[in-house]
Amino acid sequence: MAWRRRVDRLLRRRPKAAPGEDRISALPDDLLLLVLRRLDTRAALGTGVLSRRWAGLPRELAALDLRVSDVLPPRYQRWLLRHRDIYSKGTFVLYRPRLARHEFMPNMTRYERRAMRAFTRSLEGLLAAGARRRVSRLRLEFFTTRNTGCIDRLISHAMDDWGVDDLEVIARPTFYQQTVHTFPSHGLCEEPGASRLRSLKLGCCVIPRRLHRYGALTRLVLQDVAESPPSAYENVFDSCPQLQVVHLNSCLCDRDAVMLLDAPESQIRELVIDNCVIGSVWLRDLPNLERLASMGTKLCFESDSVPFLRQWHLARRHGIEVEGFRQLLRRHLELNQFVEHTRDITDLIIRFTGPDRWIVPSTSPSSLLPNLRRLLVADVPSSWDVSWPRALLEMAPALETFHIHIASCMEEPNNEEIISWHPTKLRGHRLKEFVMAGFQGAERQVYLVKFVMEVCTALRRVAMFRNGHAQDKGHWDWEMVMQQHSWTQEEKDATLNQIMGAVSSAAPPVQVVLG
Fold it and tell me: What is the pTM of this model?
């Protein structure tokens, strides 16, 4: 082609590089910085010793990602995998004394000490260079040892002098010692009032002092925080009114304690409480909260405590599987206990699980969710009476999208747990789409589909898939991921005959999908 011949002529005309000529260094700074940003931070900082041309370029990096895992040798990972493999196979009873004392402990701790020595030397060199930088994002990952003073100095220097506005500090416990990192008495930096810090993530650290002094801080993520009293978390909400996003992931507290969130001046719009060890969290006043995710943590509301809440992800598990205690400790909770103070939500994800069904319809059902538009009920055990989400449908007259995922389990359905439904007064529901993943044609599954098709006159699409699941897209959105199943004609006819009997002949046509 003509264009290819022109390119070949241009390439032939280009002068050949002289022996020893460095053409990469001749590239403009913008291109070289583009190359450096694609390298890990240790390699990018190391390019400064190549030549004078490269010496100043690492100072222009706007993001530094310093991880001790980059220093660890591959052999450390193999030892770690071997340790996990032995414990997962249940053979640790035979091997544990010998391996722990003579192999795992000495080798793992030796690699960790060497890695931390090399890591701290590189950090000391970075501080000693004294170069003027402008860094917007700093990521630090290190082992919690006694020699972490340089890490605290680097954090303070980065915030006071470099102008870091996005900071992530992850402390990794060593192989033999589960400890957390404690910041100095002055907190993260010397001048918190002048700090530009907007986003802070701490892992395996003690909550630092003077968080309220960081006036620009709007996002806070606390992960695997050491056991702290509820007041330590409550002070974050009370004293940091500028915060807009707060995530608490696997944080420790007293199992019987109550965390009271009463912050009438708070600007928090997004709150995630994920598998935190605490008795309960009581929401008394978060006036601007719009998105809430509570997974594995008991959550209680007061009336009008979250007037602007629109999206909620709720996950709870109840019950124990130990026979003998299973029946003794079984309890039932009414659905209205969870949704009676969240009337304005528009998007709801519910994951209720456990060995036995513990959720029951309300004794006095009403339209507690008048504005709900999208609903996902996920991970419903197949041994439960899967018709229980009918109660949600009756509470949400404006619901338009209803997805349900049934998770297969080894236990057989318990006939004693079948819900005795009263005749419904619901007619002319606005639901447009109903999707069920994990449909096996069981009696209560068919019952729920028939009920939906009977009362939802605006229904346009009903889909039932044998194989599939609900995949999270963040905390408040999802996607139904389906795997196609080959239905025989007899199976299709039998299923359609079961569910179509409830459809009125005068109703608009409904697209029924079997997959």
Answer: 0.85
